[in-house]
Specification:
This protein has 188 residues and is mostly helical. The protein has a domain of 125 residues: Orthogonal Bundle (Double Clp-N motif), CATH 1.10.1780. Helix content is 59%, strand content 0%. The chain is built from ten helices and no strands. Helix 4 runs antiparallel to helix 9.
Length: 188
């Protein structure tokens, strides 16, 4: 599938691997794909993010992704659902971090073994890549671009989708900016 990626999309995948490695993550996750997309300049995805006003909020997005990672990748919706069952996720995170250090719930601890120098793609990242492929095929695009990766993250439930939506970057808004579909060009 990688041979069907544009150079921009390949750069996002390489960037995601880099983010996973620099963060000590055991796998490349969907959040790493979003971080790599935030790094891009001069591509279709970076244009769409800028058009939707995300340029001014990139550091907020990075911080929110880091907070979700500390919660073991739970979205706010997951945390709220657990709170409804009487489970206080922030309290659990605090207690675990007191005992084992900051980030202990992320699963990124170096002492867990694994293969040095190799980061497999996690389930959510693989599904985002597959969704990007399906989106490109559905649009009859010959190659998978970084815009397809961004659209896939914006439509698949999870932390990246939630964080993007909090900043007005939804699938609907992205398709308006990228393809002129829908009415107007406002946040959606």
């Amino acid at each position: 599938m990688f041979e069907r990626f544009t150079e921009d999309a390949r750069a996002v995948v390489r960037g995601a691997v880099g983010h996973a490695e620099s963060g000590g993550a055991r796998s490349v996750d969907a959040e790493h794909l979003l971080l790599a997309l935030l790094d891009r300049e001069g591509s279709r995805a970076s244009f769409a993010l800028a058009a939707l006003g995300l340029d001014a909020h990139k550091e907020d997005v990075r911080r929110e992704l880091g907070e979700a990672r500390r919660r073991a990748g739970l979205s706010r919706a997951d945390t709220d659902a657990l709170a409804g069952l009487g489970i206080d996720v922030p309290a659990i995170v605090s207690r675990v971090e007191e005992a084992h250090g900051v980030g202990a719930m992320s699963g990124d601890r170096e002492d867990k073994g694994g293969w040095p120098g190799r980061r497999p793609f996690g389930r959510d990242a693989r599904r985002a890549l597959e969704k990007a492929l399906r989106m490109a095929v559905a649009r009859r695009d010959r190659r998978i671009g970084d815009e397809h990766l961004l659209l896939a993250l914006a439509v698949r439930p999870g932390v990246p989708c939630e964080v993007l939506a909090d900043h007005g970057v939804t699938y609907t808004a992205l398709t308006r900016v990228l393809y002129g579909e829908g009415r107007g060009r406002g946040r959606g």
